[in-house]
Amino acid sequence: MASISEVSSSSSSSTINPTNALVLPNILYPVIGQLDKAGYKDMQTDLRTTLFKLEEIYPGFSNNFLQSFMNKETPLLAATTNMNELTLKLEKHCDKTPYYISSSRSEQEFQELNARSKNLKRILSRIPDDINEKREFLETIKEIASAIKKTLDSVSNTYQYFKTIDGRQALENEKKEFIKYSKHFSNTLKAYFRDSNRDDVFIAANHLLIQTDYLLRTIKLYCETDTLDECLYPLLSQHQNQIKTVSSRYSSNNQHQHQQQQQQQHNIRQTSATSNNRPSSTYDANYS
Questions:
Q1: 237-271 pLDDT tens trace
Q2: Among 1, 92, 195, 257, which is 20 to 30 Å from 106 by CA?
Q3: What is the CATH number of domain 85-246?
Q4: pTM of the model
Q5: What whole-number distance in Å separates Cα of residue 173 and Cα of residue 218?
Q6: Helix count (H) and strand count (E) of the chain?
């Protein structure tokens, strides 16, 4: 197994590996959920929390742990398993009920958002099965594009239920991230039809799965009273730090531009005042 220091150093990149964030909820959590059937129900919470904390401190820990376990116990299976593909494919088999807006919000906008985001994630999870048939894959791509648009429309429809400026800003930030990764997914597809790199498509699709979860989490955070289960969102802290960094850069650039504009306006006023106090051109000519 890779050492913790290796996991930490290999995960220092500012770009989040979406597969690392999906190994826990899509592979390990469902396995932990079966412990009650084996008589170990009292271990579930502690084991789940421990793995989550390790993932937060050492991003990629769960992925490395699982791959190392497979290399030792099932080397043939490990050699043929693509973790990016597996986490994407398993999305449709996982119970993701806690990620969606609870039934306590019966408004049509929230129920529509649940239905459309579920549909988007379901179609994305079909990619590993459809990618080998070009005609079928092209139809899947069309469905994904439509599902992305409908999900974004549903997100916008929930703005009216946000009571604070902070909440609306948080949702706006997550929406921008979702759009950014939607464009990245589109660009990855264009590249795929040139270089046939399926793994890049799986990773880009996993990014969209994660961004959908982050969008839903923000809405739940500001529109529900129930306590969120933070263990559902591995690497969320990294994602939030990225948004803060981008927002900070944007604010700094805006402030710098504003200062430049003020300086330019000051210079114009100074020049204008100087011109008004100077003699006319005829006077200058005669004087010289």
A1: 888 887 776 554 444 444 555 455 555 555 545 54
A2: 92
A3: 1.20.120.330
A4: 0.79
A5: 10
A6: 14, 0
